[in-house]
Amino acid sequence: MSARKEALAVLTACRVRGAWADAALNTHLKGLSPADAGLCSRIVYGVIQNETLLNFYLSGFCSQKLERLQPPLADILRIGAYQILFLDRVPDSAAVHTSVELTKNAGRGQAAGLVNAVLRRLCREKESLPAIPDRDEAKYLSIRYSHPKWLVKRLLALLGREGTEAFLASGNSQPSAAAQVNTCRCSETEAVKALEAEGVRAERHPWLPDCLLLEGTGDLERLKAFQDGMIYIQDPAARLSVLAAEPEGRLLDVCAAPGGKSFAAAISMGDRGEIVSCDLHENKLKRIREGAARLGLNSIRTEAADGRVFREEWGNAFDLVLVDAPCSGLGILRKKPDIRRKRADDLFALPVIQSAILENAARYVRPGGTLLYSTCTILPEENGEVTDAFLGTHPEFSREKFTLPQPVGEAGGQTTLWPHLHGADGFYICRMTRRV
Fold this sequence. Notes:
The longest helix is centred in the middle third of the chain and has 23 residues, at 149-171. The protein has 17 helices and 14 strands. The chain is globular. It is α/β, with parallel strands linked by helices. Helix 15 (350-361) packs across helix 16 (384-393).
């Protein structure tokens, strides 16, 4: 019951208070055994990733509309249905029984019979579930993969049916945690040995050096290898953006929190040079400083700064300026499934903000220096269209070719990474050089 009870608490926090699932999980996993923590996380992410599909099936078995059920009955039904339909190791009887107990514990004992009847019927008929209507391609894919219809339509225009379905399926996957090795402190082999000594399965990334894929970690921050600064957590895509920049000399990280790109750049430069890591909020700057101290990196200092407001003392002063702009986050749906609840209208203002930050950050690049723009999204209007517009009004800048490890390879100044093609976060990288 512990895992299901905490999973329900997390889903309630997300729905009622607008909490992000990963942040809420960090609070509710404390005190759970590793097995219960793993099951709790799997249920939370599974329910959010498959909510539209779960709603479709449950609606066929429930006499009342899900949205009219008293909270948190709909989420209890989803928790039970997810276990029945997706978790082979959980017996159907256990999924039903624990859901009924959750109902009683939530003070909804009068609805226990409803929960029991709906889930038992789902168990009986799970091999012959109703077909999803397929006359409308976008609607079908939206229900089948539980992504918003507006995004599915956008993806169909970009990728076609096959590519869209592959992207949506990847959004419902459970990726391994990716850790980058702090080569200023240890080798990849030493990091693997340290992690395996703690019972963690550490596999070398298939194509990115000094990157490890981790399983069985539990609370990552409790690992001695993490506390000793041997590793830091960062997706391969974010690391590739730093590789594309080829950092050297004096570097400004305009939107630095939580600090992963600053850390990667410092390690790439052997902790030489100077890195100024910026964010608007002191609590985020504190996290960067703590991370740098844990990793033993002395080349990083933090500054409170708004990426849209010019700092005169930084004008023409940096060899490299990193702009990891605020974005829709549609490239990290695997890790933040809550993002799929965003509406198309929520995204309209983002290119304006991104353009303003890029415009300001360009003033900090010295002649001959590099401007690196990146996002963790896959939409052209936040990516290539932003950099195209910038280059159209700044002839002193031009895109510059760069080469990344295969399967990415050579890029003509910009590239988009896709989860279903590269096994990494969806990510856009554009490298520009200031000529004069």
